[in-house]
Write a structure and sequence with these properties.
The structure is a single chain. This protein is of the alpha+beta class. Helix content is about 25%, strand content about 40%. The strands form 2 sheets. A 4-stranded antiparallel beta sheet has the order 2-5-1-6, with helices on one face. Strands 3-4 form a two-stranded antiparallel sheet. The protein has one domain: Alpha-Beta Plaits. It contains 2 helices and 6 strands; from the N terminus they run E-H-E-E-E-E-H-E.
Length: about 120
């Protein structure tokens, strides 16, 4: 099986008020269920992590800027790594992602091991 990276993206523009701990916990339940269903198929390679909105971007010539680029109006919120035989199979696993219910997207990319020249 090959490994695929799922990158979760969502608009950075939100007028939603901060969520309570109870609301955050309720929001995480669909994610846990979805990732659990992938794990039950033995296709979850890494449970991944959520990412903060803060960061830095390192550029050539030792230039470091604040990041990520919010001017694209989209932010990466997290990632997981799954196992699948094909890109189509991996894409099918991504189809049930809870981020799709709130207007977000899942980018599906095959991971090529460093020793693989294909």
């Amino acid at each position: 099986m090959k490994e695929f990276l799922f990158v979760f993206r969502r608009s950075v523009e939100s007028n939603d008020p901060p969520q309570s701990p109870e609301q955050l916990q309720a929001m995480m339940k669909p994610w846990q269920d979805w990732m659990g269903s992938i794990a039950a198929q033995n296709k979850l390679s890494s449970s991944g992590n959520r990412l903060t909105n803060e960061g830095k971007v390192v550029k050539p010539n030792k230039v470091i800027t604040d990041g990520p680029y919010v001017d694209i109006k989209e932010a990466i919120g997290g990632y997981i790594i799954v196992k699948a035989n094909t890109l189509d199979e991996a894409t099918s696993l991504a189809d049930g992602c809870p981020i799709l219910q709130v207007g977000g997207t899942v980018e599906v990319r095959m991971i090529v091991p460093m020793e693989d020249n294909n």
